[in-house]
């Protein structure tokens, strides 16, 4: 062995010996502390002075034939009646404790003695060695709690130094095991460490068990005790649980805030400080300042001891970054004559409070001066100063401007809670509706009762978009007030959704646009005289809409024929210039058969509307011949190709025979019908057939369907399902899901399908429902 190797071994042996000596010294110190406490109890009970009491204690131990430390622990237990006493088992010395294993009382009292100096690190080492190692624990951490929910590692034992350094500070919201126990204010026991757990000593391959307990003093949680076992553990016994609670309380007495400083009340920044409580109770940003003295005892500056949760720094720094800094270090420009620092000095010196409604505050950010105007209040509390400020920021100025803008613009805001039914209006909205402030607000669902009857369609569309589709919406209507005044109103609103997309409320605003409306009327009259081409186009659109509405009422009377119930719904396009060529028909033929058709002419406007009239009437006439659906579509294709202005259309034609219950049907490029039978829903197989008018001659296939009692058949145009952002197959799947919902009434089912339709192409929609009773 070389000389260097022998030197290293000698050095290692010396270090190990020193470490052993330190451990013995610590154990000896803890033992002397425990014996000293017991001696003091005997002195208090009249057993002479300290020397006589110490001799009496040794004599008692010799007479009882028990170790001196165990007797001292028993005497302390009998006198204390504290949480440690309550945590001890009723029978002190158990049979399974060997001759070298200290009794529970000795272990707990020795741990308590090691924590009496108030040092969390010393307490952690003493607790692990004296009380927790005999229970199988191998590590523990003592956390101090900041008000924001952050944790600081105040003491630890059994963890590698690198791991302790890595977890020296835990910001709020990380979600460690200690923070969870702190948030719920109750102990957590993990017999097996959960996967993905966060905290000191937790890793991907880490197992074992862990107990996490809030550390309380007089009901206040000042920290957290976290105890680790290397292997999974069964549930703790009641005795061990009480011992862990007592050890957590011992840790709490070593943490900041457990004892106020002498002569100053509670420590500013601690959980017991009334000044901090006062700062937290303020709605404005607030700082607690502590004076900084020079060698002669003069105040030179103030240290920022605490900032409340509303504090926002002019320079954009976090609360944690500013807390602990000196006032002039954080805001050097506050030292200007007549500045903030001068006022804080005067308040601290005189005790006279200071208030200013407008004070200019400045901060330096990368040598750039940031300025803000704020209302400032400064007051002295003992030797500390409370500084509060309310910054006149851009949001405050904008809120004031918004109030004036609402008054000048005749705008009234509202919020309707769809869960509770509560409706909030501002005063301007009551005036706009001509209602007194004591009147009940008008809910959106009843808005059409207060509007002109001709405006019910856009109002219902507006409400449906908000409440059913959960999308922002706007519309204009004529408000008919109770005093007979008619006002032109524009309303805009948006839904408020929870994370699961459930509707919580609707917020929006009404605006009186009557003056704007009449101005627009005058401008429209001038524009009409100058642009007759636009007028003719508008007339064509209006004529097409009137033609369409004359032939296609939104909800015609239902058809009943030999047990067959037929209901029809029609929804026109949302924009007049998009008037389309969708049509439907349900009529009983002279042969007692029922003709059921639905179709869609390509395009919009007057051409599409007139083409729809031609095809619909032609099919009625052709059906009187008694031909089948395939032949009827073949003839109708000839009409579309040769007898119209090259109209193209899709269609479904069906003939239902009541005597047999058979529905014969054919299609010309149209989406498939949907059959709802029992608890299942599906699309019918598609027979071949090209759209009408595409070629001079076309043949069409025919299918048969025997309807059973209770069956429902749905025929529709693509305006019910078509969306720009998804395929036809995907849209059909959503329709099948919606149609499969159990609805006892056919009419109600058609209404629900129209209401919950997610199409976005602004196209007409026809929907025929057939049910066999």
From TrEMBL:
Q: Which UniProt keywords apply?
A: Hydrolase, Transcription, Transcription regulation
Give the InterPro entries listed for this entry.
Answer: ANTAR, Bact_Sigma-Reg, GAF, GAF-like_dom_sf, PAS-assoc_C, PAS-like_dom_sf, PAS_fold_3, PPM-type-like_dom_sf
Q: What is this protein called?
A: SpoIIE family protein phosphatase
Q: Where is the ANTAR domain?
A: 15-76
Q: For the PAC domain, which residue ranges apply?
A: 473-525
Superkingdom, taxonomy of origin: Bacteria
Known PROSITE patterns for this protein?
ANTAR, PAC
Q: Which PANTHER family match?
A: STAGE II SPORULATION PROTEIN E (PTHR43156:SF2), STAGE II SPORULATION PROTEIN E-RELATED (PTHR43156)
């Amino acid at each position: 062995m070389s000389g260097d190797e022998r030197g290293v071994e000698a050095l290692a042996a010396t270090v190990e010996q020193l470490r052993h000596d330190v451990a013995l010294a610590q154990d000896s110190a803890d033992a002397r502390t425990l014996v000293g406490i017991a001696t003091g109890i005997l002195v208090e009970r009249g057993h002479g002075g300290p020397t006589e009491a110490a001799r009496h204690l040794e004599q008692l131990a010799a007479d009882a034939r028990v170790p001196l430390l165990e007797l001292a622990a028993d005497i302390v237990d009998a006198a204390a009646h504290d949480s440690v006493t309550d945590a001890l088992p009723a029978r002190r010395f158990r049979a399974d404790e060997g001759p070298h294993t200290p009794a529970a009382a000795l272990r707990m009292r020795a741990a308590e003695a090691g924590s009496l100096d108030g040092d969390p690190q010393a307490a952690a080492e003493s607790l692990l060695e004296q009380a927790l190692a005999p229970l199988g624990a191998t590590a523990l951490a003592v956390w101090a709690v900041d008000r924001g929910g952050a944790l600081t590692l105040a003491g630890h034992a059994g963890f590698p130094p690198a791991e302790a350094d890595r977890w020296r500070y835990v910001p709020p919201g990380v979600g460690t095991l200690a923070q969870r126990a702190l948030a719920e204010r109750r102990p957590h026991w993990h017999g097996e460490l959960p996967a993905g757990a966060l905290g000191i000593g937790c890793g991907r391959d880490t197992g074992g068990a862990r107990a996490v307990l809030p550390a309380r003093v007089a009901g206040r949680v000042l920290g957290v005790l976290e105890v680790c076992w290397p292997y999974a553990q069964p549930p703790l016994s009641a005795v061990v649980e009480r011992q862990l609670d007592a050890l957590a309380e011992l840790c709490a007495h070593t943490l900041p805030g457990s004892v106020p400083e002498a002569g100053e009340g509670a420590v500013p920044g601690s959980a017991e400080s009334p000044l901090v409580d006062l700062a937290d109770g303020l709605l404005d940003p607030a700082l607690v300042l502590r004076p900084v003295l020079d060698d002669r005892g003069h105040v030179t500056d103030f240290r920022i001891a605490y900032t409340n949760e509303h504090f926002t720094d002019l320079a954009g720094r976090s609360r944690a970054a500013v807390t602990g800094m000196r006032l002039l270090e954080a805001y050097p420009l506050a030292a200007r004559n007549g500045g903030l620092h001068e006022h804080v000095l005067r308040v601290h010196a005189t005790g006279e409070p200071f208030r200013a409604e407008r004070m200019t505050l400045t901060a330096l950010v990368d040598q750039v001066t940031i300025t803000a105007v704020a209302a400032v209040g400064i007051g002295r509390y003992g030797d500390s100063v409370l500084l509060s400020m309310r910054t006149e920021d851009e949001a405050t100025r904008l809120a004031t401007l918004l109030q004036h803008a609402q008054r000048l613009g005749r705008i009234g805001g509202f919020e309707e809670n769809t869960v509770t039914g509560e409706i909030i209006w501002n005063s301007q909205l009551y005036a706009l509706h001509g209602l007194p402030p004591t009147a009940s607000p008008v809910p959106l669902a009843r808005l059409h009762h207060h509007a002109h009857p001709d405006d019910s369609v856009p109002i219902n569309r507006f409400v449906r978009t908000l409440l059913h589709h959960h999308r922002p919406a706007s519309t204009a209507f004529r408000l008919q007030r109770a005093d007979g005044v008619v006002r032109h109103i524009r309303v805009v609103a948006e839904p408020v959704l929870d994370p699961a997309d459930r509707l919580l409320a609707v917020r929006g605003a009404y605006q009186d646009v009557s003056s704007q409306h009449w101005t627009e009327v005058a401008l429209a009259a001038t524009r009409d005289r100058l642009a007759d081409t636009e007028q003719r186009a508008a007339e064509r659109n209006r004529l097409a809409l009137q033609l369409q509405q004359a032939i296609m009422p939104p909800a015609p009377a239902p058809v009943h024929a030999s047990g067959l119930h037929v209901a029809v719904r029609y929804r026109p396009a949302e924009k007049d210039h998009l008037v389309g060529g969708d049509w439907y028909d349900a009529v009983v033929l002279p042969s007692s058969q029922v003709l059921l058709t639905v179709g869609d002419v390509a395009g919009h406007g007057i051409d599409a509307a007139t083409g729809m009239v031609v095809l619909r009437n032609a099919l009625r006439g052709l059906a009187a011949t008694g031909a089948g659906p395939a032949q009827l579509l073949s003839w109708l294709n000839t009409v579309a190709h040769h007898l119209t202005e090259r109209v193209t259309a899709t269609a479904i034609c069906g003939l239902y025979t009541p005597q047999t219950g058979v529905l014969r049907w054919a299609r010309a490029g149209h989406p498939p019908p949907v059959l709802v039978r029992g608890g299942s829903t599906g699309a019918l197989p598609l027979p071949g057939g090209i759209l009408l008018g595409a070629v001079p001659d076309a043949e069409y296939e025919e299918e048969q369907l025997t309807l059973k009692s209770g069956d429902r058949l749905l025929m529709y145009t693509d305006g019910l399902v078509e969306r720009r952002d998804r395929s036809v197959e995907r849209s059909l799947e959503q329709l099948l899901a919606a149609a499969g919902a159990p609805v006892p009434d056919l009419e109600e089912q058609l209404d629900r399908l129209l209401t919950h339709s997610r199409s976005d192409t602004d196209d007409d929609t026809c929907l025929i429902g057939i049910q066999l009773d």
